[in-house]
């Protein structure tokens, strides 16, 4: 993690603990700043990565019907409160000229974009735009559903509430029948 200042994070965590009235020298908290700094370096590793890198290798296959990868688990950190949100992403695209990506690359794209201080809406559009740019498909449809700890643990305090965002590009934006078709496949168990 090239640009992560672990010592600065440790100092900040120690200051937060002191500010809420904790004894940072008690046994259970002595190594907490170090653990949190390592966790943040991992959780925000997407800041050091470009999701387009996963699409540098593509395959050419005689396939121009939709490709759908459902239930891609992810977790991220709300940039407003720095608490987690987690859920599933569903990605569909229709290849053009047989240009397809390895299926795991779609999941890696989601993971990279999610590993930043983030908004769910931005993850959804960034994933869709990255796939449109790199694969140049006929269309992309991305749906993300997630539970936000900022709604569960504080404020509204509504555990189980899910937020759903979607982005349609290309044919999925223009053709309601195609969009409805992919939505029905996403909803299948």
TrEMBL record:
It comes from the Bacteria. This is GTP cyclohydrolase 1. The keyword Membrane does not apply. Zn(2+) binds at residues 78, 81, 150. The keyword GTP-binding applies. GO terms for cellular component: cytoplasm. GO terms for biological process: one-carbon metabolic process; tetrahydrobiopterin biosynthetic process; tetrahydrofolate biosynthetic process. Homopolymer. One of its GO terms (molecular function) is zinc ion binding. Signal peptide: none annotated. It catalyses: GTP + H2O = 7,8-dihydroneopterin 3'-triphosphate + formate + H(+). Keywords: GTP-binding, Hydrolase, Metal-binding, Nucleotide-binding, One-carbon metabolism, Zinc. Pathway: Cofactor biosynthesis; 7,8-dihydroneopterin triphosphate biosynthesis; 7,8-dihydroneopterin triphosphate from GTP: step 1/1. Belongs to the GTP cyclohydrolase I family. The gene is folE. Its EC number is 3.5.4.16. It is an enzyme of class 3 (hydrolase). It comes from Caryophanon tenue. Gene3D superfamilies: 1.10.286.10, 3.30.1130.10.
């Amino acid at each position: 993690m090239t640009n992560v200042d672990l010592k600065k994070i440790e100092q900040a965590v120690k200051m937060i603990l002191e500010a809420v009235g904790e004894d940072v020298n008690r046994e259970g908290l002595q190594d907490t700043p170090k653990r949190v700094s390592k966790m943040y370096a991992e959780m925000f590793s997407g800041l050091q990565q470009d999701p387009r890198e996963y699409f540098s290798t593509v395959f050419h296959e005689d396939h121009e019907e939709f490709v759908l990868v459902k239930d891609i688990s992810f977790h991220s950190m709300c940039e407003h409160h720095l608490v987690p949100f987690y859920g599933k992403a569903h990605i569909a695209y229709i290849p053009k000229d047989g240009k397809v990506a390895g299926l795991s690359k779609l999941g890696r794209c989601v993971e990279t974009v999610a590993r930043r201080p983030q908004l769910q809406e931005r993850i959804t559009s960034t994933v869709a735009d990255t796939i449109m740019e790199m694969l140049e498909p006929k269309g992309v449809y991305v749906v993300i559903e997630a539970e936000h700890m900022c709604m569960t643990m504080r404020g509204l305090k509504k555990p189980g509430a899910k937020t759903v965002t979607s982005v349609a590009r290309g044919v999925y934006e223009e053709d309601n029948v195609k969009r409805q078709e992919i939505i029905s496949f996403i909803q299948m168990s």
